[in-house]
Amino acid sequence: MTTPATPERLIGGALQPVPRAVRQLAEPIVHGLGLELLGVELAQEGARTVLWVFIDSEEGVTIDDCARVSPELSAALDVDDPVPTAYELRVSSPGLDRPLIRASDFVEFAGQDAQLQLSTPLGGRRKFTGTLDGVDGDDVLIRCSDGDHRVPLSAIHRARLRYEIEVGKRRR
Asked: Are 143 and 51 contacting, i.e. CB atoms less than 8 angstroms apart?
């Protein structure tokens, strides 16, 4: 059974203080440019800290949209300084491996393949890969190769859609 989730109920890493503070700062800037703020992630990529800000719109996101948001957001981040370490700002579309950051994302993308990474193990595992079946109460429903699972929203650290790109045979 799928029940609607609160649109702004954030999950996992989005609940941490830095992404939450950046989200509050970025939201009026992104909306002022006619775009939607999907989410904020703070990630370690090798020795670098990367602040990802994901934007979207009904028409999709272009590189020009990202280029409009980036300098305005960068200036606001310089003033408020919510990130305690050096970081690289990356403004991006959600891409094919779209991050699922709000509880409502699991309802919106029901029927699509996703991978859930948990902050604490559930039944001895930290990763669930399968087809989303929506949300029931406080649980994400996901069909994996080993059966159906209920994963508490509170246990999810990071979630992304998964796409398999099939490589076809070469035509002669």
From this structure: no
